[in-house]
Specification:
single chain; mainly alpha
Amino acid sequence: MVIAIAQLMVVLDATIVNIALPSAQRDLGMSDANRQWVITAYTLAFGGLLLLGGRIADLVGRKRTFMIGLVGFAVASGLGGAATGSGLLFGARALQGAFGALLAPSALSLLTTTFTIGKERSKAFGIYGAIAGGGAAIGLIAGGLLTEYLDWRWCLYVNVPIAVIAFVGAAVFLHDKTERGRVHLDVPGAVLGCGGLVAIVYGCSEAQPRGWGDGLVIGLLVGGAVLLAVFAWWQTRAPHPLLPLHIVRDRNRGGAFLTMGLAVIAMFGMFLFMTYYLQTVLGYSPVRTGMAFLPMVAAIVVGSTQISARLLHRIPPRFLMVPGALLAAAGLFTLTHLTALPAYVSHVLPAMLLVGLGMGLIFMPVMATATSGVAPHDSGVTSATVNTAQQVGGSIGTALLNTIATSTSAVFITDHLADAARKGGLGLTPAVRDQVVKDGVVHGFTVAIGVASVIMLLAALVAGLMVNGRAPKHGRTPAGDSAESADAAV
């Protein structure tokens, strides 16, 4: 429960600010160009530092890293909530991401080394998977409630009491044994790996305002890829590598990482577009928008805890991942038929249920497979790699799909306004112009969501071809490997 509370705080914080962003922008006087940094500063720091955070958890102790992360996250949240200017808010969000990069991998590695027996492990990862999948939607709900009834600052302040509760629980209930004689840090690897990830995520975030053909965007993406290639080369020669390559060379584990990244790319795009569709097209309030995501949260919880957790110790993991990705792809495809007319019951609700159920089937077996059969001293960096795939996938998905949506909308609106102008007379009345703009926005969403559905199909293909682990037996890990002895207990 302690680990679940902390992980929920980290996951929901990636989206809880989304609905509050317009209020924060007005209050602090942020420009339209700079407002993205409230989100991007967090994802850049989180995604870029996760591998380093995972190795720190292995080197100095999982419980100690977990508790340091909780304290830092609470302090950063308090600073952000009290921000009097946009610069302080951006800095606080980056600090949240940095401490989240300590907290997330240490939480998952504690879970990995605590639960090693079949049914108990399946149940634990079912709960964890529900949090990982539903936390983003829960953040949207909480953001709507806090923004409408209190103030946008409470979207950050709320982390302080949660962190305090988790800190006390960790001090009382969590136990860990630091690996002696292993305190080594691969500094060049940290610089190369973190630098490459930050460059790629930053490049993707800048693609929205600048375009994918911009020199800075291309330079960042190419530079990030080069840094990651050098990082991979260095890891084969480093005496104490930041990311031992045997972790990602394993077929099942590599397939799980790739499946996670692809699925989250598609899922985060849907969150973004549905939030704007419900508020700007259908005119929903922040609270009503958040509540509209509740069926999806419920479907994720059911998929993770009632289906995946009950079946993972009986069937191979890919028998859950592939159907889950196919269900999610079908739900996304349903959204490609949206129009500017109200369509929550006919299109949005069925799609959310399908996507939620599908992601519930994906998250839990992916996390269990990715972390199974890992030695205790590698559990932190393995957990960090899972979170990196999720966080970087979300950042890339938001930037990629939003760029597709905005560019497609711009073309649609330009063409249709030109057609209306050629008609003359009443062709360019304010009502006509507004309707064209609204139709163009929805058209952009549907095209981008169509791309997301194809990406989700690719996730199904990867899971089906790469993840070939057998159904675990009692007392064995999900990949069928002998479980490591637990050196931590809840």
